[in-house]
Amino acid sequence: MSFPASRPRRLRRTPALRALVRETVLTPKDFVFPMFIVPGRGVSLPIGSMPGQKRYSPDLAAEEARRLWDLGVSAVLLFGIPEHKDAVGSSAYHKDGIVPQAVRAIAKAAPQMVIMTDVCLCEYTDHGHCGLVEKGEVLNDPTLELLAKQAIAHAQAGAHVVAPSDMMDGRVGFIREELDDEGLENTSIMAYSVKYASAFYGPFREAAESAPAFGDRQSYQMDPANQSEAIKEARMDEEEGADILMVKPAGPYLDIVRAVREATDLPLAAYQVSGEYAMIHAAAERGWIDLERAMMESLIGIKRAGADIIISYFAPHAAGLLK
Q1: Which of 49, 59, 60, 78 is most buried (most C-beta within 10 Å)?
Q2: 54 an active-site residue?
Q3: Which CATH number fits the domain that encloses residue 298?
């Protein structure tokens, strides 16, 4: 029997050999942990559809950030859930709003932590849409002014990175200009450049209390069928001054992660969203898959596709295994 000269199995024989030739390596520094912030003190509320995840008041968010730092996770992404919601999302851009409170608390507890903040109106409006609404339509240009005010409030509180997720046209350039005019030119922008109108956001909308009161978000989030449009959106955000680009969701869109990676030299983030997290947990709870193996395989797949930064609710668990 004739054998090939090359036998790939030779380098798979032991864990040490496999590690030696491993092409893609995860580290805790790859992760950003999303956190939901609620008013009060000493508040820690479990999220039913996201096992192990909680909503935190600013003081407990700071404690969690300190724990994350000790695990090697060096960045968090904050989402605010205010006490008051109205048609214009006024709580979103209050200088003492829920996110600025958390930014200041985390900066004090974990001074080296990179603090990122989500910039969008959906959690703050009584209609649940990501912009101002008039006669049932989400308005693009008037929304930009409010997004910029929100970004400025977060940056003035100490956020290192603001992350507009609204998908309004032109918001990156508008926010960049307004930040610079306020003397906040060192604040970075991580643009949700390629954000699809996905079914995988369901658990997040429970956690953030941000489901739209009417209609859906397909008029501003992207059609899941489109790839060329993703490259167009990413290039537009780069031209407008984004420092980091993002693809969301991650797992069902690994081809998009790869395509955007090949189209830009900017750092690229991918968001493993709530539905991806919940599905892995649900299957593991039924004994259908191994939780930790599936978790790590999903994360390595995102990095292998080309992401430099992985935003994931698995960050603390995965970092604990990698440390």
Answers
A1: 78
A2: no
A3: 3.20.20.70
